[in-house]
Each structure stands twice: as C-alpha cells, then as structure tokens.
Amino acid sequence: MADKKFPSLWIETGDDGKICVVMSGAYGPETHLPFVTPAEDLVAAAEMDYTAYRREIQRLYEEHPLFEPKLDISVSELEDLTAEALLLPSMLQEIDPLGFFELGNLLDKALRMRDDGSASFLLRAGQRLLQTLEVPIYTQIRLRNIMEMTFDGMERATQQERFAKLRGVYPDIAGFCNPARLDSYENVILLLPVDNVYQLRLVELMMYFRQEKQRIARCDYCWNYFIPKTKARALYCDRIFDGQSCKKRGANLKRRKGPEQDDALKLFKQLRDRMYARMLRYQDAPENQRDRLIPMTPAQYDEWEANARQARRDYIAGKIKAEEFLRRIDTTHELASYDAVKQELPPEESFWQKRVAADLDFDPEQKYPASFMVLDLRKPMDSPQWQVLTREELIQKDQKGHQNLLDQYKKNQEPVLD
Ligand SMILES: [Zn+2]
Asked: Is 352 in contact with 360 (CB distance < 8 Å)?
C-alpha cells in the first residue's frame, strides 16, 4: 500500500477499468472524485476552460504596480498582489477541483519563500506567485500537446500504434506511460500516489493504453477529443455548437463537400503542424540559441490554436469564406496570399505522421529515466524532459517544414474554378 502523506493525491482503481482520484488535504476528510475511465478523465481534462482564470492572471502581470518598471518596490505592493492572487484559485474550485487542490499546496509553499535580503526579492516573490497560479494552465497545455501527438488522425489506429506515435515524439513521456509497467498488477486494486496533477494525467494515460475498450479520437468538426461509442469509424462527436451537433453538421458537409477535400482546411492543418514544430524547436533549443529561432512558447501555441479552432468552426459552419478563414489563422503571415484556395496540395500525410510512421517498433521493455518522476512543474517550460528531439532531427525538420507550406502553396497555385 502507498505511504500516505499529507497533503496527497492518488489514484484508486475500481471495477470495469474505472478509477477514482482521491485528494487528501492537510486538514479535513479525504475527497473522492467520481469514478471515471481514464479516457473519460483525459478528455475532460483537455477541455477545461481556463480562459477567465488566465485573463485574471494576465491582468495582474500587466496592471499590478509591483511589476511596473521602477527603482523601488515596497513590501505593501507584494502584500497587495498576494491578497489579489489568493482570490484567483477559487475560480477553479468548481471546474477543476484537482487544480484547485494542487494550487492550495503549491501556494502554501510559495508563500513560505524566505526573504533572501536581495533588492529583487519582492519582484521575484511576486513573479513566483503568479507562476504558481499558472501551473494548472501549463499542465493542460502539456496534456493537450501529448493528446494532439497521440490521437490526432489516429482514429483507425490500434492502441499500440497510438503509443508508438507518442513514443516517436516524446520518448520520455512514453517511457513513463508505458502500459507494460502495470503488467504485474492484474486484477488487483491499486493505490497509486502521484506527486502532482500532471503526473496523475500521465498515469491515466498509462492506464488508458492498457485497455482497448475505449479509444480517444478527435472530432473533425470541433476538434475536441471524444470517445466513439462503437468500433465503427467515427469522424464527429456529439457536442453541440450553435444549436447543431457536430455529427449533423458533419453529415451536411459530406453532402456538399467533405472537409478532407477542402484545400483551405488542408492549409490549416499544415500551418498547424508548422506552428507545432516551431514550438517544439523553441522549447528544445538551449537558452542562448533561442534568439536564432522564431519564438513560440507553449502558451503562444495554445493561443494560436484556440483562435485557429474558432476560425475553423466558423469556416465549416459557413459563417466566413475561405479567404477570411486563412487570414484569421495566418497570424504570423506565412501564406503568400489568401485568394487562391483551390489547388493541389501535398499528400494528406503530415510531416509528423511521416516521422512517426518511421518509428512503429513498439518495445514494451523500453527503459525510462527515473528523473522524470521528480518533475517540478514550477520550473519554466524549458525543463529537460521536454528536450525530446535531437538537434539533427530538428534541423532536418526545419528545412522540410519550411519548404512544405509556402513553397507548395506557390507551386501549386491554380486559377480558381467556380
Ligand atoms: Zn465535435
């Protein structure tokens, strides 16, 4: 049995592959969240809406007097920031009880940071406080990245193939999530302690790979993840946007013109791949070499993606034309023009899929680094476990990636046929 510490977080396994997350604070009774399958919990976690919470943190960064450029900072400014910051976690209590619980522990530690006597202490203490508040957001960004790499375009794949795809992009994470780690625990109830919510998501992912009853797919319309109810091919989820379900909208689209035939959507996918590759490159690069790269932090990618998803929905729903769609997603001005969309584009297979296709040798015996277990989420996003691609690979990708979108776009430009 697990050593129970206060405060702590663990996963309890139940019947039918379901799990229950248990939170145990320093005071009060334990809280048991409802039983769910790992797949259900992962889909729900990827979808939590932190928009309002995030905006409040951003407001403090931008508007609080503590962060104004000046020579002197008073203690009262830090006290005031602290008072404001401590109000924010309650915004998550309903939508994300786990994030709320984790913040309680982390803020407790952050507030006990000792004054080291340096002049910049107050400023750093304030920054540290806000960075702590961002932990649930970064946890979700990481989870979304992992899910994107594992589930996007993989609806027809086997669990083994999904795992292999994850391993091709994030070998360390795949090492941690390797379902073979659960081999010796057949038919027993497990109590798995975890250090933080991010690690909890990885354990859920490991349990997800262990089973084959449920698969996680990505809806072609809204782009959220969902669990198809049958084994049959599933393109769309049951969510409802603007009064119509994705399934219904998908069927309508098919009658007119399937999204897979739509060139603007292909360009969208390529642009997305490029942004994603850019983010990985930026994270992977040593601090002193980053100035040679186009900056793309996970938060910037997340913002780009959220905006692009909305534009994509508007486009598919017929609210905007292809030109407007491309203009809205091309925030970094990569496309030569927005008027010609009917063109032959490179094959469906994306740059990532090619990479992963070359690495399907699933090996359950793979060793994984123990250092992953002590992941500290309060550190900046350039922590070592994110260095997942070698430099050579990145340079290679860089060259290919750059030729792909723009050059193909120009090369294949054809007159619009109406
Ligand atoms: Zn959907």
From this structure: no
Cα 63 to middle of ligand 1, angstroms = 37
CA 315 to chain centre: 23
Are the C-beta atoms of 224 and 236 separated by less than 8 Å?
Answer: no
| H or E stretch covering 24 | strand 19-24
Q: Tell me the pLDDT band of 285, cut-offs 50, 70 and 90.
A: confident
| Cβ neighbours of residue 14 closer than 8 Å, sequence gap 6 or more | 20, 35, 189
* Cα dihedral 174, 353, 299, 206 in deg (nearest 10): -20
Q: Mean pLDDT of all residues in the chain? A: 77
From CA 107, how far away is CA 110, in angstroms rounded? Answer: 5
Single-letter residue type at 136? P
Q: What is the mean pLDDT of residues 286-290?
A: 80
Q: Which residues contact 332 (CB under 8 A, 6 or more apart)?
A: 275, 294
Q: How many CB atoms lie within 10 A of CB 99?
A: 23
User: What strands lie across the sheet with 31-32, from one edge to the other?
Assistant: 31-32, 19-24, 8-13, 191-194
Does residue 50 contact residue 140 with C-beta atoms inside 8 Å?
Answer: yes
Q: What spacing in Å lies between the alpha carbon of 417 and ligand 1's midpoint?
A: 30
111 or 133, greater pLDDT: 133
Q: Check whether 406 has a pLDDT greater than 50.
A: no
Determine contact, residues 35/18, Cβ cutoff 8 Å: yes
Centre of ligand 1 from the C-alpha of residue 141, in Å: 20
pLDDT by residue (tens digit) across 227-283?
999 999 998 999 998 788 998 887 776 665 654 457 788 888 888 888 888 888 887
Residues 6+ apart with CB under 8 A from 46: 140, 143, 144, 147, 224, 225
Query: What local confidence, expressed as pLDDT, does residue 358 receive?
Result: 40
How far does the centroid of ligand 1 lie from the alpha carbon of residue 408, in Å?
30
Q: What are phi and psi of 362, to 5 degrees?
A: -60, 125
**Residue given tokens 């992962």 in the structure block:** 42
Ligand 1 centre from 249 Cα, in Å? 9
Output the CA 222–ligand 1 centroid distance in Å: 4
Whole-number percent of the chain with pLDDT over 70: 76
